[in-house]
Amino acid sequence: MKVTGRIVLLASAVLMLLVLSSIVLLTTPSDILEAIRSEEFRYAILLSLATSTASTILALCTALPLAYIIAGEKRSSLLAEAILSLPMAMPPVALGVTLLAFFTRNVLGVTIDKLVGVVFSIPGLVVAQYFVILPLIIKGLRSAIEAIPEEYIGIARTLGYGPIETLVYIVVPLAWRGILASTVLGFARAMGEFGASVMLAGATRLKTETIPIAIYLAMEGGDLGLAAAMTIVSLVVAFVVMIGVEVVGKWRY
């Protein structure tokens, strides 16, 4: 049974690798190298890293207290959790349309847009990524927090710890592996976000051009070298993230 399982696992991994590595057949190595040296390539990577980092930090700061509340209020938080999870179940393009409507039609959204400049701008990328990854991070953090024995929380309360102290001094140290894994997955999802971003921030070269948007623009313009180079970068990032999550999950101390 073990041998059969290993064969099936290896065959599945090889098939997946065969499919994903086919991107190198899209164009020639020289075209890919030329694309890597281009300003557009560097801009898209740096912008993706910057916006993904910003949106992940914002989402983590929001998700941590929310996940803590949800984990402690399992029944009463059911409706609120379902609402917070809606962006995860929506098509990213549909989420982008709702965000665009909020920032162009809703009084509060219009006010924020006038102050920050969200629509068709770099802040719009951060906002779109934030709403996409927030439910994902909340789910991961909730699972990590719920894995903490309840008696630990009870002991903290008997010692006079309030909710904030319990979160900072008890929950975070005990759930750090889950927090780190959820954060890394959220960052990776932000790096790959396209649908909501293109609807809210637009797809303008050397302005709102993240890696996914650069791939879209390159394919639309027939620049297969740039599209292949960007896709390879995305694959490398995804691979590193998945390895990192697996390593973190196996840490014991």
From TrEMBL:
InterPro entries: MetI-like, MetI-like_sf. Residues 45-245 form the ABC transmembrane type-1 domain. Its main location: membrane. Keywords: Cell membrane, Membrane, Molybdenum, Transmembrane, Transmembrane helix, Transport. GO terms for biological process: transmembrane transport. It comes from Pyrolobus fumarii (strain DSM 11204 / 1A). It is a multi-pass membrane protein. SUPFAM superfamilies: MetI-like. Belongs to the binding-protein-dependent transport system permease family. Gene3D superfamilies: MetI-like (1.10.3720.10). One of its GO terms (cellular component) is plasma membrane. The chain crosses the membrane at residues 7-25, 45-70, 82-103, 115-138, 167-188, 226-248. This is Binding-protein-dependent transport systems inner membrane component. It comes from the Archaea. It is found in: Cell membrane.
